[in-house]
Amino acid sequence: MFKAIVSAETLTSALDSVSVLVDECKIHLEEDGLEIRAVDPANVGMVDLSLDASAFESYDADGGLIGVDLSRLEDIAGMAESGQLIQLELDEETRKLHIQIEGLEYTLALIDPDSIRQEPDIPDLDLPAEVILEGKDVNRSVKAADMVSDHIALGVDEGEEFFYVDAEGDTDDVHLELTQGDLIDLQVGPAHSLFSLDYLKDMNKAIPSDTEVTLHLGEEFPVKIYFGFAEGQGQVTYMLAPRIQSD
Amino acid sequence: MGNAALRDIAVIEEVPFDEIEGVVAVDAHNWLYRYLTTTVKWTDSSKYTTADGTEVANLIGIVQGLPKFFENDITPVMVFDGGPSELKDDEIESRREQRRSYEAQLETAREEGDAVAIAQLESRTQRLTPTIQETSRELLRLLDVPIVEAPAEGEAQAAHMVRRGDADYVGSEDYDALLFGAPLTLRQLTSKGDPELMDLEATLERHELTLEQLIDAAILIGTDFNEGVSGIGPKTALTAITDHGDLWSVLEARGAHVEHGDRVRQLFREPNVTDEYEFETALDPDLEAAREFVCEEWAVDDDEVARGFERIDESVTQTGLDRWT
């Protein structure tokens, strides 16, 4: 049993943050909210999302599992105008999702969850550095790095106590330093890792500029990127595996 | 290939690459033939012919074929057939060699639905020339891909390595791997899409046979080394072996004869293999040196291999999250 009413913005934010990594996903319809965990086919980027029941106008579920084609569901959600509500109801018999938006009815065929890639184990990471910054600073860093390179280095200078972003291109370089004053918070620790911008750019698309983003970093370790949406009732954690640094 | 009729007998299922991990002992000649044929078919010969007319299409083939292993975190170990055999089995060996190259071409042509190409391909991929043999090994060494030299059949050696637990799968398009006792064989490593997994134990269980009986059944149908008995297909062979027990009783009952039957049987049962090999499974390819070898030393057109090298580079520098789980 699953029946819920949710704002178009909330549903779209949730779907967008997963669809940057995968085309299909499993959605756990838990009693206290939705949960999604997925990893891209190359096992490089992972998303762990939860959307509390309180983020919904109404929510009723008892622990089911459905598989969805994300772009289909996003297209449907995109039919709603800002401020409109979307009603979702699972038909257990036909295994279809009935979606209603202001009189528009859409019946979405679901995907067999067994045919979707297995949900990943969450890596066990002990990351020494923590950086809390505004979404817009993440957006800006990624955008600047992308102008010159395919890779981006994220790190923390322990001595001078700042967070930095480095991108080295064939001809041009980008360097950005954010000190304690520029950041919401910084806990220094040994941290320097290189990441693929292809992935980070996609993840960045889902990060709102006006949200608070927490980065957990280590030395040649995955980065953990955490942020909330839907007024904090939704949580997204991305994990991105590093690239090996040749020099 | 080899004995395509074995397909009807073998337990084979498609497996997604995600579910495969470890070391694949690849029947190198089988693999090379396949890429050689595809390269010769699709690439203008000027792209891989040196100023003095030497053709090294194998270098393009290798660079196009290897990324698949790297990207899926599978370590290939290339097992090469032994040099010109000193065995008395020359006749048998050469017959097999010929068939293998022919089969590779045929399969490619069949896949592409183009029969005209066969004749053209045949003259050029008939044999792995000494240059192809040497340059293939050198390129693999630069890319840090382990090489094992089999005393005789690469496929038999690969099967032996899996049985000893030094590799997890044999990689071969050839169904014969089953007869050499390969517990698990991956097919279609050279094709698009997911590979097929051929399971020896499941095959024997399904037909309630021993490996020796399976070999006998295959000999009745026909292998790379012998013509089968006329009128015996997979079904008949299985029934006959189940009824009569072994090859000789079946032949006697039917008044039939298989040339070199005992030698072929011996070839599968006790193939010439060695325990003298070692390799590391953590690969650290020197892409710069490999690129120089292919594009400068052997003057292969850069565009033909750029993408392949890039794919290998990407897969060795980008880690996966599973490293931390």
UniProtKB/TrEMBL annotation, chain A:
GO terms for molecular function: DNA binding; DNA polymerase processivity factor activity. Keywords: DNA replication, DNA-binding. InterPro entries: DNA_clamp_sf (IPR046938), Pr_cel_nuc_antig (IPR000730), Pr_cel_nuc_antig_C (IPR022649), Pr_cel_nuc_antig_CS (IPR022659), Pr_cel_nuc_antig_N (IPR022648). CDD domains: PCNA. Residues 182-242 form the Proliferating cell nuclear antigen PCNA C-terminal domain. It comes from the Archaea. One of its GO terms (biological process) is regulation of DNA replication. SUPFAM superfamilies: DNA clamp. Signal peptide: none annotated. Residues 6-101 form the Proliferating cell nuclear antigen PCNA N-terminal domain. Homotrimer. The subunits circularize to form a toroid; DNA passes through its center. Replication factor C (RFC) is required to load the toroid on the DNA. Sliding clamp subunit that acts as a moving platform for DNA processing. Responsible for tethering the catalytic subunit of DNA polymerase and other proteins to DNA during high-speed replication. Sliding clamp subunit. Responsible for tethering the catalytic subunit of DNA polymerase to DNA during high-speed replication. PANTHER family: PROLIFERATING CELL NUCLEAR ANTIGEN. Belongs to the PCNA family. This is DNA polymerase sliding clamp.
From TrEMBL, chain B:
It comes from the Archaea. One of its GO terms (biological process) is DNA repair. The keyword Nuclease applies. Its EC number is 3.1.-.-. Its cofactor is Mg(2+). Residues 141-209 form the XPG-I domain. It is an enzyme of class 3 (hydrolase). InterPro entries: 5-3_exonuclease_C_sf, Flap_endonuc, Flap_endonuc_arc, HhH2, PIN-like_dom_sf, XPG-I_dom, XPG/Rad2, XPG_DNA_repair_N. Mg(2+) 1 binds at residues 27, 81, 153, 155. Gene3D superfamilies: 5' to 3' exonuclease, C-terminal subdomain (1.10.150.20), 5'-nuclease (3.40.50.1010). Residues 317-325 are annotated as: Interaction with PCNA. Interacts with PCNA. PCNA stimulates the nuclease activity without altering cleavage specificity. Structure-specific nuclease with 5'-flap endonuclease and 5'-3' exonuclease activities involved in DNA replication and repair. During DNA replication, cleaves the 5'-overhanging flap structure that is generated by displacement synthesis when DNA polymerase encounters the 5'-end of a downstream Okazaki fragment. Binds the unpaired 3'-DNA end and kinks the DNA to facilitate 5' cleavage specificity. Cleaves one nucleotide into the double-stranded DNA from the junction in flap DNA, leaving a nick for ligation. Also involved in the base excision repair (BER) pathway. This is Flap endonuclease 1. It comes from Natronolimnohabitans innermongolicus JCM 12255.
